[in-house]
Design a protein that fits this description.
The chain has 716 residues and is α/β, with parallel strands linked by helices. The protein has 3 domains: 276 residues, Divalent-metal-dependent TIM barrel enzymes (TIM Barrel, Alpha-Beta Barrel), CATH 3.20.20; 129 residues, Rossmann fold; 241 residues, Dihydrodipicolinate Reductase, domain 2, CATH 3.30.360.10. The protein has 23 helices and 25 strands. Helix 1 packs across helix 21. The longest helix has 25 residues. The radius of gyration is 27 Å and the shape is globular. The chain starts with 8 loop residues before the first helix and ends in a 12-residue tail after the last helix.
Length: 716
């Protein structure tokens, strides 16, 4: 038995403090951890063809800041936008503190959405709703074949939506092939991606609350939008107003309690739209905008009373948790990914962004304005120096989205300060930095989430489960496809722009003269700051490959590779790469650009294969895509879907102090593969690796490349 490790009195006190802080931190948010939250969105069609400058002031009165824009014939707000122009529409949204959440375009059909998806992307919309078309008379195998063909035809459109960060929601409707509960189930089953889901309209289905609740549970993460809308004859026939309004929740006979209970059971985090159609179409459901709003709010009160007894229902846009029950967040790094995180965490009502930090004043200002506009105040602080941000004792958590060469120092400082940390991928610039970060986070006992959000998507998890549960037989090899890199000619030295602290941006990296294409997004293509596509995109897909290989806490034993590096110019990472890794169990993983392998991850076994990327999952045999897993089989960690669900998982784990879906040790192990690949390519020889001791064997030169020297005064 080894001798007990002696620690100083100061270290003993520090460990006790960390443990006490974790307990207090978890209990502080424990009551909020299990809250179910309805998230509303307001359909512009409820207001008929009233002008947008009349409708937008009503949005926040209905418990949301999100608008769903409809075109003719149900409304005409999309045409109003086309007439006024995008710039004026953006100004109107800003004026009324409203966001575009959804575009409803039945008129375009499912195969003509690309221009509208691009429009939605420009305004940050997350959903576009349309119909399926097809015949409502199809049944059985004929209907299944038609739905499969529909999904296949949708794949290019799903990919377009995925690139825009949007979901295509197909509404069930009595006049199309998506007309029955079975058709809805089958569409969800055949959908290859979380970017194609169901916009569920109870109006068009049997008014059986038990059946509808079961259908909601079966849809799970494929439920893209929930219409709080029940059947009423006034939808198609002109009736007295009180009868027409029976389509609204609480006015007709449908009991919504089982439906809400089902939404809670699946932890539904999509939007709910209180909805109805007037007769004729295109008129407001009530005579004035104010009366429309009052009718919506009456239904909200009814829904708030409908939850299963004993469970509190929170209308989140109406009433946020008390400040003492919100997670306070600081945002470090506000570039393309950092600003996305700002907008993402602003959607979560149980956290409060209280400070932003970046060395670029322009980016800092943009993020600051976004936060203050959302909260309707000027309470957010701003910093140029991350050390001032970390020193804030009133900040619970940090989101760190800085260039790779700047990952280790602030992470270690934040962990020692007791912060929870959401850290972007790739984890670190070097293997040594990653090991130091993982050790410090473990020692501090803080909650950590890596930004490897693909783990929070349905198709990546399902693909890994197929492999882990032996559906393709013994695993033989894995292929990972990355984008191809780029080269650039030598750049002239430039004057540092006003407001950009370039010296701080360089930080621990070697000094180099300023030129525009060195910084911000382009840091990825310079070895002093990153590792090219192998580490940038590879961080995502190697992580998923390891998940399916059951290799989260290990690594290869041999790595070799070839790469094409630019002979001159500013950018010096590999333009193309091919890395082959061999594992102790005989599995071989090959990582290359997409001239060699399709994008994403392909696991190949003795009896089949699984290929998964951000838009689809494909299998051989094909029926594997419909496989179900038994209770005793492997079911991997599941979170709410997509990037937002990944953020949600982080916040939930802060409250419970549970492990997140993407722990730091897992991130370190997966990015180590990419670092070893770069070393092998740069040296032009095989690297023998011991994944247990994390040492390169018999190669002192390669060993030195596991770390880099820091420029003074920076140290770990």
């Amino acid at each position: 038995m080894s001798a007990p490790q002696l620690i100083t009195r100061r270290e003993a006190c520090r460990r006790l403090a960390v443990g006490a802080a974790a307990l207090a931190f978890g209990s502080r948010f424990a009551s909020a951890a299990n809250e179910f939250q309805l998230r509303y969105i307001l359909a512009s069609s409820l207001y008929g063809t009233l002008p947008l400058d009349v409708i937008l002031p009503e949005v926040r009165k209905t418990g949301t800041d999100l608008i769903d824009i409809w075109p003719l014939k149900h409304g005409n707000q999309r045409e109003q936008i086309a007439e006024m122009g995008n710039e004026k529409f953006a100004a109107l949204l800003k004026q009324h503190n409203v966001k575009l959440g959804c575009l409803t375009r039945y008129d375009l059909g499912p195969f003509n959405l690309e221009p509208e998806i691009e429009f939605g992307r420009q305004f940050g919309a997350r959903l576009i709703v349309t119909g399926s078309g097809g015949s409502a008379k199809l049944t059985g195998d004929d209907l299944k074949r038609e739905l499969k063909a529909f999904v296949e035809k949708m794949k290019p459109h799903i990919e377009t939506a995925a690139k825009a960060g949007m979901v295509i929601g197909i509404e069930n409707h009595g006049g199309c092939m998506l007309a029955t509960p079975d058709s809805v189930r089958w569409l969800a089953e055949f959908s290859p991606s979380e970017h194609l889901g169901v916009a569920l309209a109870p109006y068009h289905l049997p008014q059986d609350p038990v059946l509808l609740a079961k259908l909601i549970e079966e849809l799970g993460p494929k439920l893209a939008l929930f219409y709080a809308w029940e059947y009423g004859k006034g939808c198609m026939t002109k009736l007295p107003k009180d009868e027409e309004l029976q389509q609204l929740p609480g006015r007709g006979s449908l009991d919504f309690k089982p439906l809400l209970a089902a939404l809670r059971r699946i932890n539904y985090r999509g939007w709910t739209s209180i909805f109805m159609h007037p007769t004729p179409r295109g008129i407001p459901i009530m005579p004035t905008a104010g009366e429309v709003t009052a009718a919506v709010n009456e239904s909200r009160k009814y829904l708030a009373s409908c939850l299963t007894p004993g469970v509190a229902l929170t209308i989140i846009q109406d009433k946020r948790p008390a400040p003492s029950n919100r997670i306070t967040m600081g945002m470090l790094g506000l570039g393309s990914m950092g600003l996305r995180h700002v907008k993402g965490f602003l959607q979560e009502n149980d956290c409060q962004i209280t400070a932003v930090c970046d060395v670029d004043a322009a980016r800092r200002t943009e993020a600051l304005q976004e936060v203050n506009r959302t909260y309707g105040d000027n309470g957010c602080a701003q910093f140029n120096d991350f050390r001032e941000l970390i020193a804030r004792s009133d900040i619970d958590a940090l989101c760190i989205s800085v260039p790779d060469h700047w990952h280790a120092i602030p992470v270690i400082m934040a962990a020692r300060a007791g912060k929870a940390i959401y850290g972007e991928k790739p984890l670190a610039l070097t293997v040594a930095d990653g090991r130091a970060m993982a050790d410090c986070v473990k020692q501090a006992g803080c909650v950590w989430q890596t930004g490897s959000w693909q783990r929070s998507t349905w198709q990546f998890r399902f693909g890994a489960e197929l492999v882990r549960n032996g559906r393709i037989g013994k695993l033989l090899k894995v292929e990972v496809g990355n984008p191809t890199g780029s080269a650039i000619e030598p750049q002239t030295v430039m004057t540092v722009p006003d407001g950009f602290d370039y010296e701080m941006w360089l930080g621990p990296a070697p000094w180099a003269p300023y030129t525009e294409k060195r910084c911000h997004f382009n840091f990825r293509w310079i070895l002093d700051y990153s590792g090219g596509q192998l580490t940038d995109n590879g961080a995502h897909d190697i992580d998923i490959a390891h998940w399916g290989m059951d290799c989260d806490y290990s690594g290869p034993v041999l790595v070799e590779g070839t790469g094409e590096f630019p002979s001159e110019g500013l950018w010096n990472v590999a333009v193309s790469h091919h890395v082959v890794c061999r594992y102790a169990n005989g599995v071989e993983m090959s990582i290359g650009d997409r001239s060699r392998y399709p994008g994403g991850v392909r696991w190949i076994g003795e009896t089949g294969w699984v290929h998964v990327n951000r838009s689809t999952i494909e299998t051989f045999p094909k029926q594997l895509a419909r496989e179900k897993f038994g209770a005793e089989e492997i079911h991997l960690y599941q979170t709410p879907p997509d990037r937002q669900g990944h953020r949600r998982n982080f916040l939930d784990c802060i409250k419970t102090h549970a492990e997140t879906i993407a722990p730091i040790e897992v991130a370190h192990r997966s990015i180590t593969v990419a670092h070893l690949g770069n070393i092998a390519m740069l040296l032009g020889r095989k690297i023998r690796w011991n994944p247990d001791s994390e040492q390169i064997l018999d190669d002192p030169t390669a060993t030195r490349m596991l770390s880099v020297a820091y420029r003074a005064p920076w140290t770990l």
